[in-house]
Design goal:
Length: 189
Amino acid sequence: MRCMEADVKRIPLFVLGGALALVPALRAAQEFKPSPNPVTEAVRQVLVKESKHLIDSAELMPADKYSYHPTEAQMTFAKLMVHIVQTNVAICSAIGEMAVSDLLKLAETEPKDTLVAAVKQSFTYCTDALAKVNDTKLGEEVSMMGKRTGLSRAAAMITIANDWADHYSTAASYLRLNGILPPSAQPKR
């Protein structure tokens, strides 16, 4: 016993602290249960995060700044919101084999309230589409607006997830250029 006590005393505290810090991680690893649909579940998780960021961005931008665009070559914030809605509807309709929504008819001249509501609806639409999918369907070709795309459902899901990140990056830049902290930079509440 004395020998063991002496050995414990020789262990540097940072090693002991590091080992203790691993306990929660090891426990979490033991609780991990593989998902039968890891890809679709991952995209659903991205949807939750990115939809919140994009909806919050739409709400944060003042109505009088919806016509803002940094350069002539870039779309206005309103056009960005319309683009988000139309992209969500087009790609998510393909992913979930759903009828195309009337949201495609949205115009950038609509008032802010209408555009914010449309962004919210488009993410509800994507949520519904992704609820219909599981990983067994990832290799199937999807059709968009009744036309073959040559894309697998997996490719469409990766495309929409990338689009959400790209669109949020643009929205966040527009907000910052107008002196507004984007949602992901806001202090935690």
